[in-house]
Amino acid sequence: MTRCFTLLLLVSGCVTRLPWVLGSCGAERDLSAAQGAPSCGCENLRRAAAAVEPVEERTSSPADKYSRGANEEPSEARGHERDTLSQMVLISGGEFLMGTDDPGIPADGESPPRRVHLDSFYMEIQEVTSRQFESFVGATGYVTEAEKFGDSFVFEGVLSETLKNQITQAVAAAPWWLPVKGASWRHPEGPDSNITDRLDHPVLHVSWADAGAYCSWANRRLPTEAEWEYACRSGLKDRLYPWGNKLTPKGKHYANLWQGDFPNHNSGEDGYITTSPVMSFPANGFGLYDMVGNAWEWTSDWWTVHHTTDEQHNPKGPPSGSDKVKKGGSYMCHKSYCYRYRCAARSQNTPDSSASNLGFRCVSEERQ
Ligand SMILES: [Ca+2]
Ligand SMILES: [Ca+2]
Predict the structure, then answer these.
(1) Where are the stretches annotated Disordered (predicted)?
(2) CB distance 201 to 60 below 8 Å
(3) 19, 141, 312, 338: least CB-packed within 10 angstroms?
(4) What's the mean pLDDT in 317-325?
């Protein structure tokens, strides 16, 4: 069985797609592709393995201190985490310009802008939480792909010192990602961690199939990229973020992102070093929380960076591919490395990937 992870790396000002190949993929290693630091043209990068190096040689030091900062006044919705399915809001159909003519990361295929028409749909107002996923697993006995494979990717900054000392390899070019045995949605930082005190945080370490299985169980589905982006924009035209163009209007944080120097120091100015409880930040104009930041969110689309400029109705992306589109960025995103907490921004992972910053939410055609 092949299981390949895709990581992102900023090299010489260019975001490089850095795949990590594990297990039986090891024979497919192609270090020349992984180690090359291309100028932009990143869309041409091949899938290949990253070199690994001893942990001792890595120089990054993790951010591991929690710091409460802004947002002293929590959202009214906070604390309303549910042990059932998420509330949904109607996203009234309409047309919008998907993508942008001013891409923050051109290699990601953010351009060109294209006119898209969408039918109405309902969207969960929050990322699916660990509590909700636990209900699903309790009802179905579902086993996630990370649990089957026996490992998942964890950001070094959230690992315990004990566990870090046991790991002997890391991705050479992106040493902040470590493959951790036993990491899963129940144990986000490995076997010595649990979710007891954060059941209202987004569920992590779920693959694309895992996310789809949850949505199907809920009689829902993953959003298309177009639906997700339309919902993110919440009726605003040509804006970077769900709330406008300023990242922190009047000094207030509107999303759980990274402040400080990635990957070595996260100041936690927004109140959270890692994930936050869902709905800790203000909703957008459609009543949707955490559309950018907190956890990345899977969409149903296959990945491509080539888009038609023809008007489209309810586009569903390419018919096939190797990676799936994810949207919104995460608590790990900083402008210097991952300027992807914009509605037009996008990234991708192989469908069987899972990591400590990737989750999802569901949509439906029907009110439920
Ligand atoms: Ca944060
Ligand atoms: Ca999110």
Answers:
(1) 53-82
(2) no
(3) 141
(4) 98
Q: Give the C-alpha separation, 212 to 225, whole Å.
A: 14
Ligand with the closest atom to the CA of 270: 1
Which of 67-71, 280-284, 350-354, 362-366 is predicted with the least confidence, judged by mean pLDDT? 67-71
Read off the tokens for 314: 């309810």
What's the 49 CA to ligand 2 centre distance in angstroms? 28
Q: What pLDDT is recorded for position 160?
A: 87
Residue 201 alpha carbon to ligand 1 centre in Å: 13
Short-list 272, 289, 284, 248, CA closest to 332: 272
Q: What is the pTM of this model?
A: 0.81
Rounded distance between C-alpha atoms, residue 7 and residue 176, angstroms: 10
Measured in angstroms, how far is the CA atom of residue 295 from the centroid of ligand 2? 4
Residue 215 per-residue DSSP state: H
CA 310 to ligand 1 centroid distance, Å: 38
| 31 C-alpha to ligand 1 centroid (Å) | 33
pLDDT given for residue 168 in this prediction: 77
Q: Which two tokens stand for residue 128?
A: 């699916």
**Ligand 1 centroid, distance to 272 Cα (angstroms):** 4
Ligand nearest to the CA of 204: 2
Report pLDDT digits (tens) over 73-104.
Answer: 444 433 333 448 999 999 999 999 999 999 99
Cα angle 318-321-324, degrees, rounded to a multiple of 5: 85
